[in-house]
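step=predict obj=Thioredoxin-like fold domain-containing protein n=211
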Amino acid sequence: MKNWKLWAGLVAVVVVIAAGWGAWWNFELRWRPKTITKNQAEIARILEGSGWVSPGLNGPKLYMISFRTCPDCIRFKKEEYPRLHKAGIDTRLIEIARADRNGVPKSTPVERATVAELWINRSWALSEKWDATPVDAWAAPGLKPADGDIARTAVIEAGRKSVEDLIPLLKKNGVNFAYPLLVWWTPDGQMKACACEKRETYRFVRKDLGV
């Protein structure tokens, strides 16, 4: 009887520990961003050399790789940009016109025209106007087409290449690329990254940036 009670007690302890660990993982650990410890300089070079646009604020930098119709990207911009900008965070948005996959188009001519313009002329006002317009209503007014323009097509390809280059570099740090991909630096200089598809990740970004 004593042995049975001892074993029952041990099982109960194990169950409690397992439940606590499961809860910690589910509500905390699984959402934490990764600290980038490998290839930091190369990752930073790709981000800084891309055609990002920003409001030009003087606070910490937050790079975000996005595509226009990405639902999780749209949500992050809508919910987090206002408070980030209020705190002086310079949100550096990198829009990508994704390549076709298995013959299925992943971008439109007007999307490619707009992305090329953003990369070339770096207009935050244009990105805001684009985001504020329903996707189906956006006609890229006054913008040069990227299709048929060698230089602008090259810009589109450069954006796609930057994603291709980042994927293995981030994977080495435990980050599986997804949109929106966020990269930032903590006050003590650590590079952090997150495929921040879920709201549960947002609090960690805000905390690291002091928001």
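step=describe
Residues 12-28 have pLDDT under 50 and may be disordered.
step=end
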